Amino acid sequence: MDARDVDSLERATVQAVSPEFVDDGVPGWLLPMDHGTVGRAQCAVPLRHDAPDVGAIDDILARYASRGFTPAWRLPDLPSFDAFFQALSERGFRRALPTQTQVGDIATVLHAIPEALVPGRELHLDEAPTAAWMTMFLGEGLDPVDGASRSRALARAQGTLFASLLEHGETLACGAASYSHGWLGVHGMRTAASQRGRGMAGAVLNAMAREARRRGIERVFLQVTAHNTPALALYRRAGFSLAWPYAYWRR
């Protein structure tokens, strides 16, 4: 990916999680700030991947402090950041939660995961989360406080649609699709535990991709934790590839 791709993808990521405030006054950085639990809405993130200026650290820390937010970072695991990592370590920050940024193209997704026409199945893309979408998103296996924070952030976002898969009127899978800066962003994918393995997440992804194609968007990205084996398998099958690994740095 070139520098423009990195810049546009990270701007799309921050827009999708809709932090309370974004400071863009430090060249080459976005500084999202939020009191919730969504890491991407709280962490300073670089807009390019060449070696960052270590001298920017104290300026960034001061900007978070001036607004009453706890500073944190979301940084690519790249050799060009080694000096930056060392400087953060000296200030008491530690690396956690290894995650992958993956990218793909809409044509490949639509070819790899065709629309699943199943009797009784419906797919909806709504401009706001429905009650059934929220119930699915906040359901089993998700901490309720974290889930509520994530749903508030998604609901605030501009340019996001909320995908629901229903069978015979029951919502069994969901996700959120952001459309901005030339990217489809895939977020918040959930499938009812009893329904996993039936291709429902793929059907939701297909619906998001078809809407991206309708809007003239041909690129897609997502972030997935490095240990989420089922999700990694789906995204690999859909033609996604690793753009860069990253991790969070917190005190």
The helix/strand series, from N terminus to C terminus, equals HEEEHEHEHEHHEEEHEHE
Biggest pleated sheet: 8 strands, mixed
CATH topology of the largest domain: Aminopeptidase
Q: What is the first-to-last residue Cα distance?
A: 30 Å
Round the mean pLDDT to the nearest integer and report it. Answer: 93
SS class: alpha+beta
CATH architecture classification name of the largest domain: 3-Layer(aba) Sandwich
The counted number of beta strands is: 11
Please write the CATH class name of the largest domain: Alpha Beta
Poorly predicted sequence stretches spanning 5 or more consecutive residues: none
The CATH homologous superfamily of the largest domain is named: Gcn5-related N-acetyltransferase (GNAT)
Could you please describe the fold and organization of this structure?
- This protein has about 250 residues and is of the alpha+beta class.
- The protein has two domains: about 100 residues, no CATH class; about 140 residues, Aminopeptidase.
- About 35% of the residues lie in helices and about 30% in strands.
- The chain is built from eight helices and eleven strands.
- The strands form two sheets. It has an eight-stranded mixed sheet with strand order 4-11-5-10-9-8-7-6, sandwiched between helices.
- The model has no long low-confidence stretch (mean pLDDT about 95).
